[in-house]
Specification:
Elements lengths: L1 H10 L25 E5 L26 H13 L4 E5 L9 H11 L3 E6 L8 H7 L3 E5 L5 H8 L4 H13 L4 E8 L8 H10 L3 E6 L6 H8 L3 H8 L10 E2 L7 E4 L7 E5 L12 E4 L4 E3 L8 E2 L1 H5 L3 H13 L20 H4 L2
Parallel strand pairs: 1-2, 1-10, 2-3, 3-4, 4-5, 5-6, 6-9
Antiparallel strand pairs: 7-8, 8-9, 10-11, 11-12
Helix pairs in contact: 2-3, 2-11, 3-4
Length: about 350
């Protein structure tokens, strides 16, 4: 019990409390489970430039990315390594010309969960095709219901197009549709209740995220951070205020609270800054250049590019294992509040 309490206290240290510890790689037992979840960043390109993600629309991109054959090999290697859940991300994955084909290929390999995170700017005319290809779940970024504010946060995004994409996702009858809203003090923090009502009216699960000190977000945390505790208080009687927030098994770091008036409805919260969640992380990331990254808060990893371009799925599975062993020790690592997170591009690695 004392060890658990000490680990919990470490994860709740203030943001950037001096020089962070330098944990070594995770030491795995021979029978340790493989990573179960991998985020696949098909492209580092994006058609928006959200203030917590990119410094501007002129931010540079990778000089080269994996081609479709290499991505198929990556998916083969992930399946061989024991990964069961794949989420396609970007940048903006709808900018990848072969997204439908990649989803269909993943479905053919038998992954138990295939999901997508998108800004929905190009979703309105593609949602049904994505569903037909085998996509199970979709998460859509929506930081405001006010067109002017939305354009300001996204640096030029068109709210009407995103709302059309959300409606199309609902009509396509995915297993689950979620909304992610990054809450910024003095910007959209007064909209939480409106966003909840908007989502619930459409059968969507709204989720609210603390701005994290990753890349551009590091500039915003000191003045713009709204904690999950504050978010819950702002929702007042809409949710079960006294209830503990609980995660969905094998579905990432979000924790959920039910609606006060209808147990079928709920709200999710992701506390990446005020209370990190590294100890239970089962996630890796594959960037668009083929680097398998063990943690969003560290700009390192193991490259699978050569193996992917050679179509060598067993070698890719070996790279997955290598990256998993590089994963920081979650009992002492403070996730996105580590100083290393400030040098990571959220857009480039899929958030």
């Amino acid at each position: 019990m004392i060890a658990v309490m000490q680990a919990s206290a470490l994860r709740r240290l203030p943001v950037w409390p001096g020089e962070p510890p330098r944990p070594g790689p995770r030491v795995l037992a021979p029978d340790a489970p493989a990573p179960r979840s991998v985020r696949v960043s098909l492209t580092d390109r994006c058609d928006l430039a959200c203030v917590y993600c990119r410094p501007s629309r002129q931010e540079h991109y990778l000089e080269s990315r994996l081609d479709d054959d290499a991505w198929r090999a990556i998916l083969d290697g992930l399946e061989r390594a024991g990964v069961r859940r794949v989420r396609f991300t970007g940048g903006e994955p709808l900018l990848h010309r072969s997204l439908d084909e990649m989803i269909a290929y993943a479905a053919g390999l038998g992954f138990e969960d295939i999901a997508l995170t998108t800004n929905a700017t190009r979703l309105a005319h593609r949602a049904r095709a994505l569903r037909s290809a085998g996509l199970h779940r979709i998460t859509i970024s929506l930081d405001s219901l006010d067109a002017i504010r939305f354009a300001r946060i996204t640096r030029g995004g068109d709210l009407a197009g995103v709302l059309a994409g959300i409606d199309a996702a609902v009509a396509a009858r995915f297993d689950e549709v979620k909304i992610n809203c990054v809450v910024l003090r003095g910007e959209n923090d007064h909209e939480l209740a409106d966003i909840v009502r908007f989502a619930w009216a459409r059968g969507i699960v709204p989720r609210f995220l603390e701005v994290m000190p990753v890349g551009e977000g590091a500039r915003l945390v000191p003045d713009r951070l709204v904690t999950v505790r504050e978010m819950r208080d702002a929702l007042g009687d809409l949710i079960e205020g006294a209830a503990d927030a609980v995660p969905d098994p094998d579905r990432g770091p979000a924790r959920y609270v039910g609606a006060a008036a209808d147990p079928r409805l709920r709200v999710g919260f992701i506390s990446g800054t005020s209370d990190t969640f590294c100890a239970g992380c089962d996630r890796l990331r594959v960037a668009a250049d083929g680097v398998v990254r063990p943690c969003l808060a560290k700009d390192d990893g193991a490259s699978a590019r050569g193996a992917a371009e050679a179509g060598d799925a067993p070698a890719i599975a070996g790279v997955i294992e290598e990256a998993w062993r590089l994963k920081p020790d979650g009992l002492v690592w403070k996730g996105c509040t580590e100083a290393t997170a400030r040098g990571v591009s959220m857009r480039a690695v899929g958030g």
